[in-house]
Amino acid sequence: MSTKIKVEKPLVILHGDEMAQIAFERLLEQFVTSRLDIKLLEVDLSAEKRFTSNGQVVLEAIDALKEHGIGIKNAGMTVNRSQLDDLLEKHPQIKESELDKLATKSPNGAIRKGIGGNITREDIEFRNLTSVRPDWVNRDIEVDTMESGGLDFSYSELSNATGVAKVMFVGSSGDPVELHRRTLKKGDPWMLANNSLEEVEAWAHRFFQRALDEKRDIYLGLKDTVVPGYDGVMRAAIEAIYESDYKEKVAAAGLSYHYELIDAQAARIVSNPPERALWGVPDNVSGMKLYKLVQQLKHYGLPERKANVSISRMSAGGGDQYGSYNTPAPEDGIIKVVVDGVEKHARMVKAQDPILFMSNDRDAIKDWVKQVFRDASIYKKEVYFGLKREFVNYDEVYSSIILEIRQELAALDTPPPSFMIMRPSRQLSKMICDPPRWGLYPAQNLDGDIFSDISAALGGSLATASSVIKSKDGTLLYEAPHGTAHDLYLQYLESDGKVANFNSSALIFAVANALEELAGREGNQPLAGYAESLKAALIDTVAQGIITGDLKGKTLDPENETVVDMYGFLDAIEGNLNKS
């Protein structure tokens, strides 16, 4: 007779890539299929499967989540140019020109939009971990950002009609050509931004020369994987200048150059600041936030974190840069936005200038704000919104919706949670430098990505935070906020599987949370008890000082830490689970 716990409802499993996938397969076997009589609906979302299916597996994942309501997603790769070339060489029958964008882009945005979900991330409540407190006072780091272009010099407004927005381009032929179209509803915000490639290149020369003059290591951060036609264009131009004019000079000066995606780089620098560096963030909106944060950290240092940090990241509407149309200008000409047949804005651009058009859904924004207030009420949290409403109409719509929902709650004699609206740079500063005991920080997609990675890194590791995507129809997708751990995967391959370093905490927590929700929906008390025991076993393991290498020196008693590999960590958790 089977001793497995019977589970009636199926669980959707979305597989990923690299070291995260090695860990995911092991823990599913160790803590799910060996102990539960459960049906797993598994979808392979690896980079290669997305490529060979021309993105069809992403749609299958969305359909499975919408049908069954609860899933777990593992981290997946977003392929860069080199990796795409390798896939094309491996599968010569596939033509790049025929690929759907879902075949090569990260599936995350499509899944969040497909299920209409927003992300909530917060620290796992470990008892034996300290927050990371690097010595920031007088640290010699400077942030360099562009003073022109980008979202600070954009045009935005609210659509005054329900209709079609078109991005038009008029070049040397004089005939308008439609580049992009999307449907807007009345009240939806939209924005057009661009950057001058000439100014980007001029900034790059100043940036690299400044680093040489001041003898600083060089860091450059953009989001070229998600915004390839905008950030990707800037990265290519900046790195071409580095390669041709500065690489040899930098090496001769004994300096180093580092490029990284801006969210991962921000987490790395804030939690482990270099001694002396020039940090280049060309995007002026992200750049100014990080500039102000670094200035404050250098002056006041980093306080001890005594409370969990929760971040609600709006992603369901596909708004901001993550849901944008972005492309380099095909030639010198004029870029226009036409809404419902009426020209709303036009500006001159030159060939290869990066262009970005984005919009958001007012209804999705309202659903998100309601979710924020609901979560804050349930968990007794104070809310700190970050909006640049005094400068851009795009953000003003958020402010008006917040007040609208507040009035709706007042009409029902339901007091809204305590909340404040502040500039995003102040929101980031408060979250890092002045965190209240129970703070919830709602942010738009790109800000939320950067902020949550910084917060998780300061909490100990990206693997010590939990993450869930919530949809208004009740669909829940639990995930780990970290990536695929490419460097650890290379070690694993080079050692023929003997070196297996990976912290599975966030994945285990995602599994336990999904099982707990499944138990609640079907009234399954044995499953609820198992999910609770699995969480407790994870937390007890770390409390015993048994940790993976990324947490070395971060416990309350570093002298009594036992550092183990991925398999040793999972086995220790299983041992504690069996005791319970």
Automatic annotation (TrEMBL):
One family from Pfam that matches here is: Iso_dh
Which keywords does the record carry? Magnesium, Manganese, Metal-binding, Oxidoreductase, Tricarboxylic acid cycle
Q: Does the keyword ATP-binding apply?
A: no
Q: Does the keyword Metal-binding apply?
A: yes
The chain positions of domain Isopropylmalate dehydrogenase-like read 10-573
What's the cofactor?
A: Mn(2+); Mg(2+)
Q: Which domain of life is it from?
A: Bacteria
InterPro entries reported in the protein's UniProt record: Isocitrate_DH_NADP, IsoPropMal-DH-like_dom
> Which source organism?
Congregibacter brevis
Q: What is this protein called?
A: Isocitrate/isopropylmalate family dehydrogenase
Q: What is the similarity comment for this entry? A: Belongs to the isocitrate and isopropylmalate dehydrogenases family.
